[in-house]
Amino acid sequence: MDFETKISNTLKFLSLDMIESANSGHPGVAMGLADFLTILSKHIILNPKEPKWLNRDRLVFSGGHASALIYSFLHLFGFDISLDDLKRFRKLDSKTPGHPEYGLTSGIEITTGPLGQGVANAVGFAMAGKLGSNLLGSNLINHKVYCFCGDGDLEEGISYEACSLAGLHQLNNLILIYDSNNITIEGSTNIAFNEDIKKRFISQGFIVKEIDGHNFDEIDTALNLAKKSKKPFLIISKTKIAKGALELEGSAKSHGAPLGADLLKRVKKSAKWEESNFFIPQDVKIAFEGFRESGNMHYQIWQQKLEKSSKKALLDELLNPSFNKVTFPSFSKEKFPKGLATRVSNGEILNAISRAMKGFIGGSADLAPSNNTALKDSDNFPNGANLHFGIREHSMGAITNAFSLYGIFIPFCATFFVFSDYLSPSIRIAAISHLKVYYIFTHDSIGVGEDGATHQPIEHLSHFRAMPNLITFRPADANENVACWKIALSLQNPCAFILSRQNLPILKSSTNMDCSKGAYILKDSKKVDVILLASGSEVSLALNSADLLEKDNINTRVISAPSYDLLLKQDKAFLDKLFIPNVKVIALEASRGLEWYKFANVVIGMDGFGVSGSGSEVFSKFGFTPSNIAKIIKQNIKI
């Protein structure tokens, strides 16, 4: 057999042995893509000795179910994945889980699995590369982003959103490889999918090349063209799922189940392959040592360029961001007698961070004037830090995940809170991966008012508070917003800021707000008869309600809880000081709020959706007034 076939068979049979050993996995994609990955191994620039090298090529498998093939490739390339790790594929606590996870396995650039996410991640990496090149120079940042995707990825809407942006910005560092085998789980793609993918991508601004995905020469030619392209490049690689799997070749049955020991044995025999499991020919090992050394050579040359570059200090600054340089704004009652919406104060905070940190970037899904996210001292992408995502929330989330993992950027993105549903899958990936991404969600409650039920978030806060690793902040005023940002910048977690459309009164100085534990006592009494617990716009409501209660000699403690997630992490000693045992706790929130039963005896929240009307009228209709709150509290406590 020719040497390319030998490499392909090595990748293929390592993957099949992993899947058979696990009795679980996806053999069809591994067998179908092994030929293309064989040739890509000669083109891609990676250095396993320095896996975080900034100018490495990025490799994304959007179809994360191809993980056996990814791990086989990374093992051969010399990343920190041993043969024993391959043998533990899909086993508990292994480095080789069923879908690739960032931070768990060396060489995995980003967590993939939900179809379409990886395509948008690749666009994000390519955008980050363009911005990085403009900041640091094309002699330091000139890598490529390779992304394998399949029919499922291109059927998901997120890929269309992301590729639209890629075409708009002419991301010529992006190379998509479409594994076009015309098979999905239910059978042939034509039962649900008949788009002309070539025309679709040409209309989005891509160069498109169709090839036989099992012809090594055609693959090599296509990759050479793609690397020289002045536009993003799509290679439509026509393949057969489970190529070489005898009676299962081209069958949907090969997608998500092992071939079985008997068929695997026959397949190896047909390919004239060693029958023993996890066999790697010596000359294939030597070939990958050569690929690895080539990557190391590129790295050493890059290091020499860096040492001579005038951008070295800037790169050091981007790689090691310091938040101590940020001069945060302060807000007083005198300056803002009518109060200030937290979306507005947040805009000032974002600009303060941006002025101090060149790697702080972000933008909105076509809502910057409403979200207050424009960075006033910066240009637009690709020449500056302002990202314009258009009305593309889903891909916005996945793109910012890639920016976060690129290495030199700290990203934020923004939309109305009710539209957070669109990017929830991307936020979930960020939470799984502990990515440093900031989500700005404005128009946070029924206080949105006139736009009505479709635009008034109800269940959204509960959803995100239930998501592990995501830290939500719902500040009560402008200064609490500052205090929350100081905490958020210190965390290695994705953080969401839930902000008001309407003005909120300035309560007190941020220097007197300890938000680090998620909640603090804002107003207290020597003898406490009832505790009011609130976040965001309802904190001032709690204070006004407390004033009415105290006229009736009901002594009230008011707790502001800007972060339910941080509060959950506190120990019993702190909670017993905050919530006095045997004193009733009443939680107020103009949303569903059922999670507050963790701390509260009574939750005054929303049982249904909102209505159209002015914000104050809607609050009044649903009982969020001091007089009604006081009435409910009197009914629930005995003095």
Q: What's the structural blueprint in terms of helices and strands?
A:
Elements: H1 3-22, H2 27-43, E1 58-61, H3 67-77, H4 83-87, H5 117-136, E2 145-150, H6 151-155, H7 157-168, E3 174-180, E4 183-184, E5 187-188, H8 197-203, E6 207-212, H9 216-228, E7 233-238, H10 261-270, H11 282-308, H12 312-319, H13 342-356, E8 360-364, H14 368-371, E9 386-388, H15 393-406, E10 410-416, H16 420-433, E11 438-442, H17 460-465, E12 471-473, H18 478-490, E13 495-498, E14 520-523, E15 530-534, H19 538-551, E16 556-560, H20 564-568, H21 572-578, E17 585-588, E18 602-604, H22 615-621, H23 626-636
Parallel strand pairs: 1-2, 2-3, 3-7, 6-7, 8-9, 8-10, 10-11, 11-13, 12-13, 15-16, 15-17, 17-18
Antiparallel strand pairs: 4-5, 14-16
Describe the structure.
The chain has 639 residues and is an alpha/beta fold. It has 3 domains: 3-283, Thiamin diphosphate (ThDP)-binding fold, Pyr/PP domains (Rossmann fold); 323-498, Thiamin diphosphate (ThDP)-binding fold, Pyr/PP domains (Rossmann fold, 3-Layer(aba) Sandwich); 516-636, 3-Layer(aba) Sandwich (Rossmann fold), CATH 3.40.50. Helix content is 41%, strand content 13%. It contains 23 helices and 18 strands. Strands 9-8-10-11-13-12 form a 6-stranded parallel β-sheet, with helices on both faces. Strand 12, helix 18 and strand 13 form a beta-alpha-beta unit. Helix 15 runs parallel beside helix 16. The longest helix is centred in the middle third of the chain and has 27 residues, at 282-308. The protein is elongated and about 90 Å long. The termini are far apart.
